[in-house]
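Lecture notes, continued. The same structure-token format from the folding unit now serves as the input rather than the output. Read the line below as a description of shape only.
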């Protein structure tokens, strides 16, 4: 069991799942969240943010958080390769367009 309050991994994922239950939102995240993490396997802001999230998840719950951390790092690696193929400028344009589409009423 996770810790109560802010450090409760189960509540964190429940909120995340409820927030991302819209089919269009799921599609946008599946296709366009990758470029957020940035270029091919370099130590940049995407890497730093990924490490922060990994540590956050492990602090929430050691067992389940370790799996979440592994998935987060896998996303960073995948995003890095995709962003490297797209190029920095196009990756951020794709990312920006995904947010514009996502937040339309």
């Amino acid at each position: 069991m996770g810790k109560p309050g802010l450090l409760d991994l189960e509540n964190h994922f429940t909120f995340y799942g409820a927030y991302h239950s819209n089919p269009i939102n799921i599609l946008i995240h599946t296709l366009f969240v990758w470029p957020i993490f940035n270029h091919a396997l370099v130590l940049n802001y995407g890497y730093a943010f990924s490490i922060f999230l990994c540590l956050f998840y492990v602090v929430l719950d050691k067992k389940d958080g370790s799996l979440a951390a592994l998935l987060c790092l896998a996303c960073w690696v995948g995003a890095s390769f995709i962003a490297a193929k797209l190029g920095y400028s196009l990756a951020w344009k794709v990312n920006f367009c995904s947010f514009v589409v996502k937040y339309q009423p």
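Point for the exam: The chain is about 75% helix and 0% strand.
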